[in-house]
Amino acid sequence: MRGGRHQGQRHLCRGPRRHEGARRFLRGAVQPPRDEIPQHGLGRQNPHGARLPQAHPRGVHVSEASGVPHGCWRDGGIGEGPGGRCTRPALVTVVGDNPASSPWKAHLALWGVGLIYAYNYLVAKGLMPEKIGPSGFIALRVAGATPLFWLLYAFRWERVARADLARLWLCGLTGVTINQLLFFNGLAATSPVHASIIMTINPVLVLLISAALLGTAITLRKVTGIALGAAGAITLLLNSGGGGLESYASWQGDLMVLLNAASYGVYLVAVKPLMAKYRPLTVISWVFLFGGLMAFPVGASQAAAIEWSTFSTKDWLSAGFVVLFTTFLVYLLNIYALGKVQPTVVSIYIYLQPLLVGGMVWLASKLGGADYMADMGWLQACCAVVIAAGVWLVSVPAGGWKRLGR
What we know:
The protein has helices at 20-27, 103-127, 134-155, 165-189, 192-199, 202-214, 220-238, 251-277, 280-304, 313-338, 343-348, 352-366, 378-395; strands at residues 11-13, 44-45, 51-52, 218-219. With 406 residues, it is mainly α. It has 13 helices and four strands. Helix 4 (165-189) runs antiparallel to helix 8, helix 5 packs antiparallel against helix 12 (352-366) and helix 7 (220-238) packs antiparallel against helix 8.
């Protein structure tokens, strides 16, 4: 294998070589050659290019709603380009000092991440829009989580170069402001079942955005994955609201969730050089600061209109869950888990999201909660399977399943 491509694969297209200025900005600093990347971590680069000691997991961030991290896939495959250099974000990240240590604790943490994100669909949907407007919810979320991130950042302070502030602003715009506003407004207008299925297509969108902006090569295997993912998403969009009067799904809400995933794909491309250069906590703190400063004014009026006196104990707990657990705790759990298990294992957890949401929807209907069962059927199940197959082809190299046994 040379240049991160597998033998026998034929590259169908390479992005045009124009717009080099924009591409160089998105790529960021010169990336380290493959032999400079540690076995279980991404080496941090100082401004002069020398690799600094690896003392903690790097290159980790969590996808909104799915809880899926990104980074570089080592030993070939997604995220590598000519010469073995990482040219775009991938679904998973090679991190940690000892992947074999305490794997059951890591799996427990990843299950916790999956359950928190799955439950978030139902909790947030239950509060919107009657109790809290979707944009107002984002204002509360950034106002609550940003100080917590900066409190931790104060104890793990790391200086950020002034030249990186523009990129951090772009990451805040695409990864927090546009991403979260579209997701919560979309979730308020559609079914949690549809939203969870659509969000799994994120890695496919990352590949398309990387090909358009960075000229990332697309192989026949990945073209097949893109086609499957697109077919599943389009079918779901065209059949939104097909469950009758009891259906919560709408094509407008589904489209906003899909655009949210696209915005996050741009964020993943832009944030990768920062994740290789700084601690994850440093990056997320600045991203939430810039993103929060832009998102808060948008939702401030809805946040001010909240009638807190009408909140029940359940409503208070639900709002606190979204702010503290979905936004803050999930990040910490992912950082821990990614230092303990192989990246291929982590990537599998993206496929659990629709299953977990479906299970919670069924349980809620049995316990007398909101009934979203009208949005669960064979069509939704088939779309979820088709999208999952496309994501697998895009994200995991040939023979990637064998990596689970390592």
